[in-house]
């Protein structure tokens, strides 16, 4: 066995190399290389950025909740989902990005066997949890637009689904505790590594577990996200056509038309974030799992594997850096100018709300705009069923709490 094979058996951390026979190897143990050092630096930078982004998202959610103060009943459950997504992404940051950065720098596994098993479990757990929470948000978006009264973002339903996501993530990650273990390398020096060597007795066993992870962490979530967001897009498109037709006919007052414009903007916001979510999930995870399939089933030569690993090693896990940017930009970080206009011109806006001044109306109705867009969709759906018009909807928006987060 040459020196490269001995090193790759323990450094690559992929069971692809487990079929290499453990014949006596008199080479020295692997040491830190320039490529491994560069990989550690890149992972560390991604970990820092991801940590800062997710912490800022959590702080923003906390401030949003404190700002509501006595109105805890109006807390929208979608923020709870985003909060748990940020927590899951923090796990990914610590155990996947930062953990892999430290491991690349130390080269060998410097902790014990139980730490090896726990570390691999937490890595997979964090990835499952982040993906499952992302799927919950997609389902919630779909239900909120299509079936508003069945949204999962009420406080009780949301907690149940989130707890279910945590439990399911733990169950799916349990095999990691059994598969990975500490092994001593066949080198002159004492060299230990956290590997899967010796667990699989047949190639199909490894392929079966890889397919299990591929299905539950990528294929199934992707199908759910695409299905829910395409359905959401179609629902919003139909509503958009109705909106334009009603505005052209001008059956309602200026106040009603502006109210409809707010509804239209809220729906378009939901559509934009839907497209970005699916695109980010596909862009960051497709290269990772494509490479996994190539390694597991096509069995390319060692040089090809190393090139693939150099290209995609930061994909997938770095999705935890993108999520705070997406949800923070669309849900949490509000422009200060808008808030200032609300505080300084509330009386003027109220006195001019009945005039055709769109700017005044926008400031006057801004408290309504702060409610989640699904409340607006709910109001429109109710009106289309009972035919009572927008005056009825305006009363309901101020006197009932049927929106998500009740």
From TrEMBL:
One of its GO terms (molecular function) is corazonin receptor activity. It is found in: Cell membrane. SUPFAM superfamilies: Family A G protein-coupled receptor-like. GO terms for cellular component: plasma membrane. Residues 339-365, 381-406 are annotated as: Disordered. Residues 53-327 form the G-protein coupled receptors family 1 profile domain. It is a multi-pass membrane protein. Keywords: Cell membrane, G-protein coupled receptor, Membrane, Receptor, Transducer, Transmembrane, Transmembrane helix. Residues 352-365, 396-406 have a biased composition (Polar residues). It comes from the Eukaryota. It holds the Pfam family 7tm_1. The keyword Transmembrane helix applies. InterPro entries: GPCR_Rhodpsn, GPCR_Rhodpsn_7TM. The chain crosses the membrane at residues 40-61, 81-105, 125-149, 161-182, 212-236, 271-298, 310-330. Belongs to the G-protein coupled receptor 1 family. PANTHER family: CORAZONIN RECEPTOR, ISOFORM B (PTHR24230:SF163), G-PROTEIN COUPLED RECEPTOR (PTHR24230). This is Gonadotropin-releasing hormone receptor.
């Amino acid at each position: 066995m040459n020196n490269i094979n001995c090193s790759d058996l323990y450094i690559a951390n992929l069971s692809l190399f487990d079929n290499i026979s453990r014949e006596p190897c008199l080479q020295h143990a692997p040491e830190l290389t320039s490529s491994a050092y560069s990989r550690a630096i890149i992972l560390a930078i991604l970990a820092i950025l991801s940590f800062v982004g997710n912490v800022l998202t959590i702080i923003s959610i906390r401030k949003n909740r404190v700002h509501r103060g006595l109105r805890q009943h109006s807390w929208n459950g979608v923020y709870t989902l985003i909060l748990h997504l940020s927590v899951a992404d923090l796990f990914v940051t610590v155990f996947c990005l930062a953990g892999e950065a430290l491991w690349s720098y130390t080269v060998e596994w410097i902790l014990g066997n139980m730490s090896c098993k726990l570390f691999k479990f937490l890595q997979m757990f964090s990835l499952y949890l982040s993906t499952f929470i992302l799927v919950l948000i997609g389902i919630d978006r779909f239900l909120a637009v299509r079936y508003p009264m069945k949204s999962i973002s009420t406080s009780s339903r949301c907690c149940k689904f989130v707890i279910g996501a945590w439990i399911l993530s733990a169950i799916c990650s349990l095999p990691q505790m059994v598969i990975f273990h500490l092994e001593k390398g066949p080198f002159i020096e004492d060299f230990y590594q956290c590997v899967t060597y010796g667990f699989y007795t047949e190639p199909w066993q490894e392929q079966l577990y890889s397919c299990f992870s591929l299905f539950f962490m990528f294929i199934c979530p992707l199908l759910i996200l695409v299905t829910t967001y395409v359905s959401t897009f179609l629902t919003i498109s139909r509503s958009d056509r109705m909106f334009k037709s009603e505005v052209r006919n001008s059956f309602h007052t200026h106040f009603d038309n502006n109210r409809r414009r707010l509804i239209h903007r809220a729906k378009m916001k939901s559509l934009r974030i839907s497209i970005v979510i699916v695109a980010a999930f596909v862009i960051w995870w497709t290269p990772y799992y494509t490479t996994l399939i190539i390694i597991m089933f096509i069995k390319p030569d060692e040089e090809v594997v190393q090139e693939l690993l150099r290209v995609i090693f930061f994909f997938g896990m770095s999705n935890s850096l993108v999520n705070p940017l997406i949800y923070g930009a669309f849900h949490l970080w509000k422009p200060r100018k808008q808030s200032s206009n609300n505080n300084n011109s509330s009386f003027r806006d109220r006195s001019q709300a009945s005039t055709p001044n769109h700017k005044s109306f926008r400031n006057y109705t801004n408290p309504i705009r702060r409610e989640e867009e699904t409340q607006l969709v709910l109001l429109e759906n109710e009106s289309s069923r009972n035919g009572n018009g927008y005056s009825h909807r305006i009363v309901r928006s101020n006197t009932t709490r049927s929106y998500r987060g009740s």
